[in-house]
């Protein structure tokens, strides 16, 4: 290999390869960008929002009720879903008159979940019926429960399908904000 070729490899090819490897590592383990395809999380997230998801956070802390999470769809493993985490492992959940009851107690008034009206739909969202969440699973709902396919229909989201916590809307510019 002549000096000019060595120079090109050292100055151009090597940094590009390193950048690609670092990008793959960051995307796989730290943060990933997603685009919101549907209105199931309106008004928190709207169609076309681009978000960053922290894939690292749940290695150090447990998911909390109210977190907006991204996970592999229990119905179609090729799709990723975004919903709000409502029920934790071992709890009983009930949707009654648009409100969520956890272990037969209403959600606190200042909770992230108290601002939404949840409709009774599907096999797991029957009015007045308690559903117990398995040990390694969560119950998730879309904020726009009129048009959300979520745990009310397909049941529980296995813990192993959890990809990360939605942290930030970064596009479009007029919607840039921290996701709550």
What secondary-structure arrangement, pairings included, does this model have?
Elements lengths: L2 H27 L1 E5 L14 E5 L13 E5 L7 E8 L4 E5 L2 E4 L2 E2 L24 E2 L4 E5 L9 H4 L2 E2 L3 E10 L5 E2 L2
Antiparallel strand pairs: 1-2, 2-11, 3-4, 3-11, 4-9, 5-6, 5-8, 6-7, 9-10, 11-12
Looking at the structure, what is the overall shape? Answer: elongated
The CATH homology group name: Umud Fragment, subunit A
Contiguous runs where pLDDT drops below 50 for at least 5 residues: none
Biggest β-sheet, characterized? 8 strands, antiparallel
Please name the CATH architecture.
Ribbon
Order of helices and strands: HEEEEEEEEEHEEE
CATH fold-level name: Umud Fragment, subunit A
Tell me about this structure.
The chain has a single domain, classed as Umud Fragment, subunit A (Ribbon), CATH 2.10.109.10. The radius of gyration is 20 Å and the shape is elongated. The chain has two helices and twelve strands. Helices cover 17% and strands 31% of the residues. The model has no long low-confidence stretch (mean pLDDT 91).
